[in-house]
Amino acid sequence: MKRVIVLTILAALDQKFQEKGMPLKSHPIQNGQYLYQGKFNLDKEHSLPFGVVIAKDEAESDFQISYRKLAYLNNYADKVNLLELINELNQTKTFYYTLCLAGDGEIFLRLLGRSTTDVKPLYEMLVIGSNIAKVMTAELKSKFPSLGIE
Questions:
Q1: pTM for this one?
Q2: Helix 120-143 crosses helix 9-19 at what angle (to 10 degrees)?
Q3: Domains parsed from the chain with CATH numbers
Q4: pLDDT tens-digit profile of 80-90?
């Protein structure tokens, strides 16, 4: 009798991150969800925090990838024009990610999806997201030099 090992998404992601040399580990958070956190270097001076939330540790689950703190709206007089740019970028350059403006002025990038234990597409979306975040940060700063970056 052949023994079948059924992986959960967390086990599959842990394995993928280990294969790729990414030291990420999941941590349980509220509502039975799990969070992976890391930082992506934009340049020598700036990094962007990112997170991957897995809704449940099963063979199939919803997930969210987010890149935080792309920029901050400091001058609220620019809000309408900034939202117009965000809408344009969402339609033309963010692919399956969505650029968002939070109530506190933080601009972030996020993706909602569903995965199975074949986590290769999820991993590839995470990697591509770092490139999209880098391009969006540069684009936002070029059009709105007053935006803050941590």
A1: 0.91
A2: 70
A3: 9-143 (3.30.1460.70)
A4: 999 999 999 99
